[in-house]
Amino acid sequence: MGHGGNVIDELVTDHREVEELFGKIEALPPGHKDRKVYADQATIELVRHSVAEEAYLYPAVREHVPDGDALADRELEDHATAEQTMKDLEGCDADDAEFDRLIGSLMSEIREHIADEEQNLFPKLRAACSTEELDRLGEKVRQAKKTAPTRPHPAAPDKPPANKLLAPGAGMVDRLRDALSGRGKQG
Hints:
Layout: H1 7-27, H2 33-64, H3 68-90, H4 97-128, H5 131-147, H6 162-181
């Protein structure tokens, strides 16, 4: 979080961090308790990342990129699918058979989403926006991640202005729950 740079650099850095967590999950045997720890850390990062994209990236895509509405809508559908998977995963322990199915599904969904953003959406956004606009969006995304929720909320709004109004409150509650439970911290 708070890597610096323009919006594309910021989000690509997030992508690499999540992929690193996925690699740690894959390196452990099924049922290992740390798989759940890494899954929780990945969920925290993915939720914050998604909330920031929904608040600032996708509205910019709609505004600046040709056929941006269709692109943004497709990305939001990906987010909704992944968020439901993360919500289902939240209730599973690492030794639960459903955990392996869900984490495998999540990693596949996220990897496809990342590839699509990096190969399709980001180049289009870079071509459509000035360097200053990309830098401004990067700063907004960094700020949004600081107050974003850390747990999946599939029923929450995913478009402005409602998402921008509700996310900080949900984020505060999530961070309090995380602090009290130790969620997202390596044991």
